[in-house]
Automatic annotation (TrEMBL):
GO biological process, one term: phosphorelay signal transduction system
Alphabetical list of InterPro entries matching this protein: CheY-like_superfamily, NreC/VraR/RcsB-like_REC, Sig_transdc_resp-reg_C-effctor, Sig_transdc_resp-reg_receiver, Tscrpt_reg_LuxR_C, WalR-like
Protein name: DNA-binding NarL/FixJ family response regulator
Taxonomic lineage from the root: Bacteria, Bacillati, Actinomycetota, Actinomycetes, Propionibacteriales
Pfam family, one: GerE
Domain HTH luxR-type: 149-214
Domain Response regulatory residue range list: 6-124
Gene Ontology molecular-function annotations: DNA binding
Sites bearing 4-aspartylphosphate, chain numbering: D57
Annotated PROSITE patterns: HTH_LUXR_2, RESPONSE_REGULATORY
Alphabetic keyword roster: DNA-binding, Phosphoprotein, Transcription, Transcription regulation
Matches recorded under SMART domains: HTH_LUXR (SM00421), REC (SM00448)
SUPFAM superfamilies attached to this UniProt entry: C-terminal effector domain of the bipartite response regulators, CheY-like
């Protein structure tokens, strides 16, 4: 990731894009590298502008945010931009689908500017962001599809499994460190190894995996 966080802004409402664009451009560590009015434009611009974060609306013409997210994640892989979804409701079906498609989280359109900025920075740093109060209800959606954990889970050490469960329950690295009597640096290393062994993109996918496989 570059020194400044490169953001691609995607929304079909020009006035909303203008307002968010002004907010982002007022920050010394953020750079708006492009704006798109639909998902198809977003996919194309993601190829040419090299964003770190795609701020993605979910409901748009031509190609919606869920489909655009899936294409960007599939095309760019783990080294590609992180997608942060914008939604109107704190438990939006489209936002949940975008998480399944590979988005790193979602935030409400009505969120305070400081929260939106913090969410962009967090996603750029590899942390998941889910609108306050929605985490448990969002991932309860996946519980009904319980499958048996595969060899990727078997490859984890007992300690890594413990940390996976702590992370899936929503604990921060600091909270896991305090609970497991480890340093934050050690927890961060464990999380990286867990994601690598299980071939998961970020902590959001880790939480989805835990729910889908009945671990929590």
């Amino acid at each position: 990731m570059s020194e400044r966080i490169r953001v691609l802004l995607v929304d079909d409402q020009p006035l909303f894009r203008t307002g968010i664009g002004m907010l982002l451009r007022s920050q010394a560590d953020l750079e708006v590298v492009g704006e798109a009015s639909n998902g198809a434009e977003a996919v194309e611009l993601a190829r040419g502008t090299g964003p770190d974060v795609v701020l993605m609306d979910v409901r748009m013409p031509v190609l919606d945010g869920v489909a655009a997210t899936a294409r960007i994640v599939e095309e760019h892989g783990d080294d590609g931009p992180r997608v942060l979804v914008l939604t109107t409701f704190d438990l939006d079906e489209s936002a949940a689908s975008a998480i399944e498609a590979g988005a790193s989280g979602f935030v409400l359109k009505e969120a305070e500017p400081e929260l939106l900025l913090a969410a962009i920075r967090s996603v750029a740093a590899g942390t998941q962001v889910v609108a306050a109060g929605a985490t448990r209800r969002l991932f309860e959606r996946f519980r009904g599809r319980t499958a048996t954990p595969g060899p990727e889970y078997d490859a984890l050490t007992p300690r890594e499994r413990e940390i996976l469960l702590r992370a899936a329950a929503g604990l921060s690295n600091a909270e896991i460190a305090a609970t497991e009597y480890l340093s934050e640096a050690t927890v961060k290393t464990h999380i990286s190894r867990i994601l690598s062994k299980m071939q998961l993109r970020d902590r959001v996918q880790l939480v989805v995996y835990a729910y889908e496989h009945g671990l929590i």
